[in-house]
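Running log. JK asked me to keep both predictions on one page so they can be read side by side. First protein, sequence followed by its tokens:
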Amino acid sequence: MASILYVATDEGVVTLKSADGHNWKQEHHGLKDWQVPEVAVSPQAPNKVFAATRGDGVWVSEDFGATWKKPCYGKRGPGKVRCLTFDPHDASTLYAGTEPIDVFVTHDEAKNWQRLDTVWNIPYVSTITYPVAAVEPHVRDITIDANNSQIMYVALQVGYMLKTTDGGKNWELLNKNLDCDVHTIVLHPEDSNKIYIATGGHDSRAGKAPGRALYSSADGGKSWAPMAMEFQEEYSVPLTVHPTKHDVLYSAVAKGQPGQWRKRNTGAEAFLIQSTDAGKSWKKLDGAVSQANHSFVESFAFDPANANNMYAAQRNGDLFGSDDSGASWFKLNVNVPALSDMKATVA
């Protein structure tokens, strides 16, 4: 059995393979002409991976990333795709969040798409702006309740969150006491009313939000409380729950936002953090990743065959591994182009 990492980069999708989790080999590099913000692996087939392209919809590979095709070629569908999420109860159903703001759904593995126009029934959505000229307001993350597929959360850039409890027929805006720049939404595996979010700290820097980078809700998003106030850093993207230890959370935080990192010699000044009590308290994780703090970890992944094996992917294309659930880290022997996402599977 081999471990597989699919890495979404600014120059397509890179497939990495390892027999032991330490020594990696690049197997494939496809879709090189496209920026790929996110990949999603079929829950039923590790060889089948879907790629969100920022300009040409959703592509799929059925041979571990060796060759790619666009299932909805010539048909209506999403264009600039920023995120992809499988319905946890139906491996043929996939949601795509796009730029500008839209949510699409397919029930046949990306062959045909429907646009959920209902998100625009929230008047606020049409007022959202984005501070970078080359980027329009967009959907950054879609998270579906594992216990009830009708419940879904959508992160808007830069415009808080939407929630539906009826599969997208109706939506509500969640915008009280949280940062407007929501990057990642995670639900606790045992209590889906417990929500964790990682944000870009936009409102923190403007003095408009009570927290910094991370927030939690215990009531399905009605109310929010800051997390990780032990740290001054106010920017985060990656947020994940340990697959078997559900009160153990991981994130990465940085000082300021990416525009500031590029202007200073010290870069992101980033490091990894961990909570072992469901987000109540956090500590810094030392080791190779936090020492390489000029770049920023965009994504975590756990090896499905061994939950102690986890991986961290930095924006600059450096990859790190841990075989003790993040207590210590080592740099992987491969580099990829600038990246934004990574998913792990086994084959």
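And the second, directly underneath as requested:
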Amino acid sequence: MSNESHEVVITDDPAEFLALAEARLAADPVLTVVSTVTHRALAHVAQGLPAPERPRWWAVVRDASGAVVGVAMRTAPFAPYPLFVLPMPDDAAVALARAVHARGEQIGGANGALPATQVLAEEAARLQGGTAWAWEHTRLFELGELVEPKPVEGRMRRADTDDTELCLAWFQAFAADAAEQAGRTEGEGHEEYFTREDMLERIEGGRIWLWEVAGETVHLTGFNQPAFGVARVGPVYTPREHRGRGYASAGVAEVSRWLRDQGARACLFTDQANPTSNRIYQALGYRAVVDMANLRVG
């Protein structure tokens, strides 16, 4: 779909999207969420798994010369089904919002890099006769030189299938606890639902690691499959009764070191309203790359 000087291509085929956007994604691989989600969707297609009940799509924005200047996706399985937006010029973000509106879709939220996400959300709000507001400000960090944390009791191990129920419970608790630590009230954030199958896939892929002290599991650090040479660390979760003892620093350092040794760059997201997590990761050598935000439109 053309919109003034931009063309917006929207597809529900992850392979078609990667063919269109791969060069753009590879040029800025630390913004790995779109790459990770798309490659996972492609793997599910190859395995013959059924498509999600809710339609999902990916978008590419081209400028007048035909160059790809922006990419986004709408794949979130939870309300308000926000778009995820990578950096793009303001006029490209406006064109994308108008293209989605022309499809007859309501945009209830947008998540991603600033200022593009803000511009898109505000244009969507204008078109829908509503307003846009931010409920969460996040920041993307990339690991520079790893700074070893203070040693703590215990050891790290990879999760195995016996840990599936514990991992599922902790993944589900992560979002609620993170919102509480950041001072947001219940209902302001989104609820992302994980299944036992999700945990088994991550565990069997070696992407969930646990910290143990005297046989008791006290902390979880996960990561996503590397895409274009970059792996996203998270979630990072320590139950309330075990916090403040250095387990998160130790766990993230261990996983980050392992990823680096495998030849991958490590990145992670923090909630800007949570000073504890921001301080921990910066102390380990993570450096800010881009500010991001979750916005609602209504």
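Observation for JK regarding the second prediction: The chain has a mean pLDDT of 91.
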